[in-house]
Amino acid sequence: MAKIIAIANQKGGVGKTTTSVNLAACLAAKKKKVLLVDCDPQGNASSGYGIDKSALEQTIYDVLIDNAGEVDIREVIQPTEFKVDVLPANIDLAGAEVELVAAISRETRLKKALDKVRDEYDYVIIDCPPSLGLLTLNSLAAADSVLMPIQCEFYALEGVAQLMKTIELVRNNLNADLNVEGVVMTMYDSRTKLAEQVVAEVRDSFESAVYKTMIPRTVRLSEAPSFGQPILYYDKKSKGADVYMKLAKEVISRG
Ligand code: ADP
Ligand code: MG
């Protein structure tokens, strides 16, 4: 039975997609069966796996708005050459945020769909959009835990309180068992005093939930998506590949 981890932070550009794409690939490299769920209309997790977003016949959108139970999630999930299956997204998904508002059980659509394939995987990684709307609620309702990437910058903790409130809300209403999986510091630059201060501040708030592994800012990590490859395949010997393998190890060891 898969552990379902939502990668969430409503701030954009903090490394959610980079972490989803690369953590998924590294878990798979450690012989885990992994499904990566792209829950962002930008579809960057999908293109990060070399999936041509414009050529998709069906996406997560069709799964979520399927009122009649006609869409088979297995037919939408795509195998990839990186040993990770992907439930892809494209800009169609932007419509779901609006279309689901009036739908029955609108917050638990993803959970219901993932329940059908859950026992086929060890991990399901959900890349959330940069908002706390219905798509993120669907992700949190479906998840066992939330992994929060926090960027090492001055306003790092801004918005995190709001995310914690949302998690509490989801616990009270949709998913009583939702946990905080961990906090990963991203785009770390060891040369700056600021990065150190931010890490200290985040450790103060989240204590042992913060992973020992910190993701440094590296050019290779930012280049890999344009080649449609996780870092482990784009540049196996890079620092980025090394740290995401270490993060995968920590995630597995936390059980
Ligand atoms: P989010 O999904 O939270 O919006 P992304 O993962 O898309 O964030 O990252 C935002 C931008 O920063 C992207 O252009 C990405 O390539 C780049 N980026 C993310 N992590 C790193 C890193 N560790 N080093 C360098 N660039 C990074
Ligand atoms: Mg993203």
From TrEMBL:
Domain of life: Bacteria
Protein's name according to its UniProt entry: Sporulation initiation inhibitor protein Soj
Substrates-to-products reaction catalysed: ATP + H2O = ADP + phosphate + H(+)
Listed InterPro entries: AAA_dom, DNA_Partitioning_ATPase, P-loop_NTPase
Subunit-level organization: Dimerizes in the presence of ATP but not ADP; ATP-binding is required for double-stranded (ds)DNA-binding. Interacts with DnaA.
Family: Belongs to the ParA family.
Domain named AAA: residues: 2-179
Pfam families found in the cross-reference section: AAA_31
